[in-house]
Design a protein that fits this description.
Elements lengths: L1 H25 L7 H22 L1 H4 L12 H19 L3
Helix pairs in contact: 1-2, 1-4, 2-4
Length: 94
C-alpha cells in the first residue's frame, strides 16, 4: 500500500519539476527566485493540482487517466503551470 502513495507522490514531483524546467528554461520567463523559485512553486502547484483532482475528481475525470488511473496528469500539470504563471506575473509586473 505504501508503494501506491510513493508512486503517486513521485509522479506529482516529476510533474512539478518538469513544469519548472519548461517554464524557466524553455519559455525563459522571469521568476522570483530564478529556477529555485520556479521549482518550489511548480512542486506546490503539482500537489495542489493533485488535491483539486481529489476534490473535484468527478468533474475532471474525463480529462485523462495516467498510471492506470491513479494520477490525473492534466490537473497536476495545469495547476503547476498556473502557479508558475502567477509567480511570474507577481514577480515582474509589466
Amino acid at each position: 500500500m505504501w508503494f501506491f502513495y510513493f508512486n503517486v507522490g513521485l509522479t506529482y514531483l516529476t510533474i512539478g519539476v518538469a513544469a519548472a524546467v519548461f517554464f524557466y528554461f524553455v519559455l525563459k520567463k522571469p521568476v522570483l527566485g530564478r529556477f529555485w523559485g520556479a521549482l518550489v512553486v511548480g512542486l506546490i502547484g503539482a500537489f495542489l493540482g493533485g488535491l483539486v483532482d481529489q476534490l473535484f475528481g468527478g468533474v475532471i475525470k474525463y480529462l485523462a487517466e495516467f498510471n492506470n488511473g491513479t494520477v490525473n496528469v492534466f490537473a497536476a500539470a495545469g495547476v503547476s503551470m498556473f502557479m508558475l504563471w502567477l509567480l511570474s506575473k507577481a514577480s515582474y509586473p509589466r
